[in-house]
Amino acid sequence: xxxxxxxxxxxxxxxxxxxxxxxxxxxxxxxxxxxxxxxxxxxxxxxxxxxxxxxxxxxxxxxxxxxxxxxxxxxxxxxxxxxxxxxxxxxxxxxxxxxxxxxxxxxxxxxxxxxxxxxxxxxxxxx
Length: 127
Description:
10 strands, Immunoglobulin-like, mainly beta, four-stranded antiparallel beta sheet, four-stranded mixed beta sheet, about 130 residues
């Protein structure tokens, strides 16, 4: 009996940590400097943040994907966040992993010390 209660409790803990499909995930707003000719300049030169690439595009739960911010400029800093899951690493290329099926978001803020740009992308976790 005690073993059954422990197993049920462990199963509950596993499920309660996952975001439910009816939860609202805010995506925020994105600013995208799409090319160097139209991007703002500072003393360090032009700044551009064009996209985030997720490889592979669909992730199987329990595995990881590489997430890359495509940006050009001098002295860039990258700040990553996610609506769910784990981010590993720093800089322009990091890794993302999640153990819960669903669609979540990853956001990257890139700054050159004068300007910032933010891009948010959806990321899908499947079985």
